[in-house]
Amino acid sequence: MGFVRVNNRTIPKEDKVFAVSGRAKAAIAEKGKEAVIDATIGSLLDDNGDLVVMSSVMEAIGTLKPADYAAYAPIAGVPEFKEAVKKALFDKYTPQGHVAVCATPGGTGGLTHAMTNYIDVGDEVLTHDWCWANYKGIADEHGRSVKTFRFFDEDGNFDSADLKLKLDELASKKDQVLLVINTPAHNPTGYSLTDQDWDNVINIVNAASCKVVLFVDIAYIDFAGEPDEVRSFLPKLEGLGDHVLVLFGYSASKTLTAYGMRCGATVCLAKTAEEAEEFTKAVGYTSRSTWSNCNRSAQVVMGKIYSDDALQKKVDEERRTYRDMLLERGKIFEQTLRENGVKSVPFTAGFFITIPSDDPAAVCAQLEKQDIFCLALAKGIRVSIASISKEKCVKCAKAIADLLK
Ligand code: PLP
Question: Which residue of 132, 257, 375, 387 sits with most ligand 1 atoms within 8 Å of its CB, as the best mutation to test the pocket?
Answer without folding.
Answer: 132
